[in-house]
TrEMBL record:
Pfam families noted in UniProt: RibD_C (PF01872)
Official protein name in the record: Dihydrofolate reductase family protein
Domain of life: Bacteria
Transmembrane intervals: none
Residue ranges constituting the Bacterial bifunctional deaminase-reductase C-terminal domain according to the UniProt record: 4-180
Gene3D superfamilies associated with the record: Dihydrofolate Reductase, subunit A
InterPro entries: DHFR-like_dom_sf (IPR024072), RibDG_C (IPR002734), Riboflavin_Biosynth_HTPR (IPR050765)
Species of the source: Gordonia westfalica
């Protein structure tokens, strides 16, 4: 059965972006990038991967979910950032249609359960914190790219909300010279 995987960069103080949605303080160069490219090549936007010569065909995802703010990061330059994946953007104000992107105001839990019931690779929850909170009970695996920085405020990994407590077990952890660590958890 497919899993919902929340794979995301996070600061030491638990934010996936700064107060104004900025994420440019996250390290995008260094030895940890080879780890990303090796294990999660399909989480790199299609055009960047092509420019870097990264083969995305062996990745573990075939769908990506994101909130409207996460999707808006690449606009207007990249209206279909992950063309190699089925892209779902949750929004109550869908923009004009874009090839390869499904804009939806469906209940995220309902859509995730439907996707999980289909054959295919895992589903990547790209962001953001509000969507992650709505889907907390559906997340099967957390992969946190803990970055050695503090934002002090911003968009948290999970927004305060009402979701049932859930326990996860650590299955792997890898440290890099940059100070970035990858820690992977599965639902216990």
């Amino acid at each position: 059965m497919r899993e919902l995987v929340y794979y995301v960069a996070v600061s030491l103080d638990g934010y996936i972006a700064g107060p104004d949605g900025e994420f440019d303080a996250f390290l995008v160069e260094g030895d940890h990038m080879a780890g990303i490219n090796e294990r999660f090549p399909d989480t790199i936007p299609t055009d960047y991967a092509a420019a870097l010569g990264i083969d995305q065909s062996g990745g573990g995802f075939d769908a990506v979910l994101m909130g409207a703010n996460t999707y808006a990061v690449g606009l207007p330059a990249a209206p279909s950032p992950y063309r190699h994946l089925d892209q779902y953007v949750f929004t109550h104000r869908p923009p004009a249609p874009v090839d390869g992107v499904t804009f939806t105001d469906r209940d995220p839990v309902e859509l995730v359960r439907e996707l999980k019931s289909r054959d295919g690779k895992d589903v990547w929850l790209c962001g953001g914190g509000s969507l992650a909170t709505q889907l907390a009970g559906e997340i099967d695996r957390l992969v946190l790219k803990r970055q050695p920085l503090l934002f002090g405020d911003g968009i948290p990994l999970f927004t305060p909300g009402t979701y049932a407590p859930g326990r996860f077990a650590r299955v792997s952890s890898r440290e890099f010279g940059t100070g970035v660590s990858f820690t992977e958890y599965v639902r216990a």
